[in-house]
Design brief:
Elements (H helix, E strand, L loop, with lengths): L8 H11 L3 H8 L3 H8 L7 H11 L10 H13 L11 H10 L1 H22 L1 H7 L6 H11 L5 H10 L5 H11 L3 E5 L5 E4 L4 E5 L4 H16 L1 H11 L4 H20 L2 H10 L4 H8 L3 H8 L3 E2 L2 E2 L3 E7 L4 E6 L28 E6 L5 E8 L14 E8 L21 E2 L24 E2 L11 E2 L2
Parallel strand pairs: 1-3, 8-11
Antiparallel strand pairs: 2-3, 4-5, 6-7, 6-10, 8-9, 9-10, 12-13
Length: 461
């Protein structure tokens, strides 16, 4: 397959710096001249086929990393930020945003951080009590950690491989239990009211007796990550350079969760099983003793260079439509603020508990997807315990639909079968959406007091 003409200077420069090479040394190993490499790193020339092949041959580099990825995420995030009323009518052209994302990704991230600071200030001013009690910070620790995983493509190579090594014997839970007990840790059933509790003084790990087996396994592996892989996790956190200790602590939990998921569903075995079972979530859950949510989330992280799986998006929403987890290895990027598009089938999953919903969908940019949705409510374990209600969405671009059992009886060639969905109302360009909640901030509105359609206005060009 021919390599497409692609400008990726910032990514090429990042690879060189990651390898600790000078431009001269890097050019020599790639088989190009120093001036030519300099021009490619500054986006004056596209990355040549020779360089792409040399990256794979000399460094084992996955050339897919040169495509879209971070740049597309940055473009989506900048478009949403620039739709803020603070910028009025100064929305740059999409082509200009792509140039910034490709040529100056550090600047783009600095702009996004500045916008988050602006939003934080506005939200605190809207609540005087909160403003007086907390002051203004640049970004919440939660958002900072979310962005870290977002721009890592939700794949942390060192942690993923360490988890896979633990699972090499075939049962990561048994291996983790044995390693913990060798350290003097006692594992027992705990009282209701919490999933997991570890007492460092007595070295006692208590796991909820009422949780389902998949949750207990996951929580045991989470604690194993904190106790057995602390050096690796802390080294990874050092590289992330979080601004506050609070953000670092949140990320530590995230890293332990990542390790637990990767040990429960080890990369190589998961990738092979997903292909063999055609990404049947229920079959995969049964094979690995995991929950459907754990399987869906893991599928979205199978992005190891040189051994990538189908690129999926994954999202979890609550009953109010608030996104509580999100990740995308596809071109579809979720809104950073607010909920998901109401036309998306994930919202209907609450109406059909225990069933998978399928949807052929098309976003405003013309990209088509196969979307799955299912409720994943979490019972409290006793009569008077609250039930946590969530729904998950998983999907891929239609080019990969043949790898999913869920597409077998769908007519993916019929353009009329695809339902229009968006990202967020305020940046969605659809002019005739009957579910629009707020006007798009990039378009002029036309109001005719003598006419009323579905909306009290029409969206201009």
């Amino acid at each position: 397959m021919a390599v497409q003409k692609h400008y990726a200077g910032a990514k090429l420069r990042e690879i060189r710096q990651r390898l600790g090479l000078t431009q001269k040394a890097f050019a020599g190993q790639l088989g190009v001249s120093l001036p030519y490499l300099n021009q490619m790193e500054n986006n004056h020339r596209p990355v040549s086929t020779t360089v792409v092949l040399a990256l794979a041959r000399e460094f084992g580099f996955d050339v897919a990393e040169l495509a879209e990825g971070d740049a597309e995420r940055l473009v989506t995030d900048m478009r949403e930020a620039l739709a803020d009323p603070a910028f009025a009518d100064d929305m740059p052209e999409l082509a200009d945003l792509r140039l910034v994302a490709s040529n100056a990704p550090v600047f783009a991230r600095a702009f996004l951080a500045l916008h988050r600071a602006h939003r934080a200030g506005q939200e605190r001013l809207a609540s005087l009590d909160e403003a007086l009690g907390q002051g203004v910070t640049a970004a919440s620790p939660w958002e900072e950690v979310r962005d870290f995983f977002h721009y890592c493509d939700n794949y942390i190579d060192a942690v993923d491989r360490a988890a896979e090594r633990m699972a090499r014997g075939g049962d990561a839970v048994a291996a983790a239990s044995e390693a913990l007990e060798a350290r003097g840790v006692t594992i027992r059933d705990g009282a209701n009211g919490g999933l997991r509790r570890y007492d460092p003084e007595t070295k006692t790990l208590s796991l909820s007796a009422v949780s389902d087996p998949a949750t207990r396994r996951f929580q045991l592996l989470h604690q194993a990550a904190l106790l057995l892989q602390s050096d690796l996790i802390e080294a990874t956190l050092d590289l992330a350079r979080f601004r506050t200790e609070e953000a670092r602590a949140i990320a530590r939990v995230g890293m332990a969760n990542y390790f637990a998921g990767a040990a429960l569903l080890p990369y190589g075995a998961m990738l092979e099983a997903a292909g063999a079972l055609r990404h049947d979530l229920e079959a995969l859950a049964g094979r690995f003793g995991a929950s459907i949510e754990q399987v869906a989330h893991r599928l979205s992280t199978l992005q190891r260079p040189g051994a990538k799986g189908v690129p999926f998006f994954f999202v979890r929403v609550d009953q109010a439509g608030t996104i509580t987890k999100r990740h995308s290895a596809t071109r579809l990027q979720f809104a950073r603020y607010g909920g998901a598009c109401p036309l998306w089938n994930v919202h209907r999953a609450f109406e059909t508990p225990g069933r998978f919903l399928r949807q052929l969908a098309e976003t405003p940019d013309g990209v088509r997807y196969l979307c799955l949705a299912r409720d994943v409510s979490k019972p409290g374990g006793r009569f008077d315990a609250p039930v946590r209600r969530f729904a998950i969405g998983l999907g891929c671009e239609i080019a990969h639909a043949g790898a999913l059992v869920y597409a077998d009886d769908l007519d993916v060639t019929n353009a009329r079968a695809f339902q229009p969905i968006g990202i967020s109302c305020r940046i969605c360009e659809r002019r005739d959406c009957h579910q629009r909640a707020v006007p798009p901030l990039e378009r002029r509105l036309e109001i005719d007091v003598n006419r009323r359609g579905t909306l009290p206005y029409t969206v201009g060009g």
